[in-house]
Amino acid sequence: xxxxxxxxxxxxxxxxxxxxxxxxxxxxxxxxxxxxxxxxxxxxxxxxxxxxxxxxxxxxxxxxxxxxxxxxxxxxxxxxxxxxxxxxxxxxxxxxxxxxxxxxxxxxxxxxxxxxxxxxxxxxxxxxxxxxxxxxxxxxxxxxxxxxxxxxxxxxxxxxxxxxxxxxxxxxxxxxxxxxxxxxxxxxxxxxxxxxxxxxxxxxxxxxxxxxxxxxxxxxxxxxxxxxx
Length: 229
What we know:
By secondary structure, the protein is α/β, with parallel strands linked by helices. It has helices at 2-14, 34-38, 55-60, 67-80, 99-112, 139-162; strands at residues 45-47, 85-92, 116-121, 168-176, 180-185, 196-199, 209-217, 222-226. 33% of the residues lie in helices and 22% in strands. The strands form two sheets. The protein has a five-stranded mixed β-barrel. Strands 1-2-3 form a three-stranded parallel sheet, covered by helices on one side. Helix 5 (99-112) runs parallel beside helix 6 (139-162). The longest helix has 24 residues, at 139-162. The radius of gyration is 19 Å and the shape is globular.
């Protein structure tokens, strides 16, 4: 895997493009690509679908890892590559999920301090073995848990973005409007993550990489100014 990702990174570098790893399970071999991120060979961005934190729920989901291993792995990844952006998705309201197990998920979220997070309520899928599991959670309760989950993550996201204020970074220009430029940093995958808003200076183009200084943030996005030489 390391050789493949490294080769992909070399191709991206030659093409002046960005490469991110999405929907990668936390198997041990994933650890091997983190040094490549620290060396700048691929973007320091990793999307890992942890799905839940309760060992019982993870087992019923047939997921290969558990929450304690995942937290240790996150600490290890950040030790090797402090600038890594971690994204994940979770499911609430899986059949049989108790309030205690949901609280366990919230505790994991607080411990992990992930940069980007998506959350979905469990929905039956045709032919899925989980459909036959007992203890299906009522729709209203699933939605209530999802709202509580996202409220916790929004606070985490806002705090992590605030730390970027005053820092300089390279962004990729996506869209130019009359009074505003929309760009993305290495931490922002298209369509699923936040963006970086810039004032339209009239001298940049779509697809261009520019250096900016972060001047503000909110729950999901950053504001910045273009750094002039």
